[in-house]
Amino acid sequence: MAQKIARDAKSGEFVSMSVASRRPATTTVEFVGSGTSKSRTVNRSADTGRFVTGAAAKRNPGGTIKQRV
Q1: Is the pLDDT of residue 8 over 80?
Q2: More exposed terminus of the chain, fewer Cβ within 10 Å: N or C?
Q3: Alpha carbon 65 to chain centroid distance?
């Protein structure tokens, strides 16, 4: 079953769902786990958690992670 998680849209840090409900303009809610399609690969900075482009991930393979969403 997919689980909802919330992130700060600027920093990429995880926040609680109560914080996300109070700040909908500056947070994003994602579904993770089983039950998600996992059909798309995204790249994130390992340091900040922010999404990065594929080109940025290739330039810094040790500092990025790939995630299926």
Answers
A1: yes
A2: N
A3: 11
